Amino acid sequence: MPGPVRLDGAGASRADELCLDVPAGTFARERSFWSALTGWEGQAGARSGSACLDPPAGMPVRLWFRRGDGGDPVTGHIGFACDDRRALAGRHAAAGARVLAVLPRETTMADPGGRLYCLTGGDGGTPADLAGSTLAWP
Question: If you placed Cys at 135, which of 4, 5, 44, 74 could pair as Cys (CB 3.0 to 4.6 Å)?
């Protein structure tokens, strides 16, 4: 399994989730579809309106679902677990990203093309265990 990366003093980080933003009306269907397709078991997420599928041992990325309010199509974004969101957001911004929102459990970013992604810590319901600045699958 790939280890974390350390960028210019911004702490450890690793891409650890693919998040699908799903309209409320199709949430259960999307989650069931991906569970059947992958064979991964699902569980309710720590946050309201979320769920995840846990991959087999050794696979470093889990599939996460967030329920949206509107009828927009399903979209997706990548999530990075990190041990210092503020420092990593600054490092990403220096590379051309923009900080869109700093929330209690995640920082929403936009890449130079405007595509969204997020930075999360160990308390955000991600599969990262950030104790001691090491990102490891639990």
Answer: 4
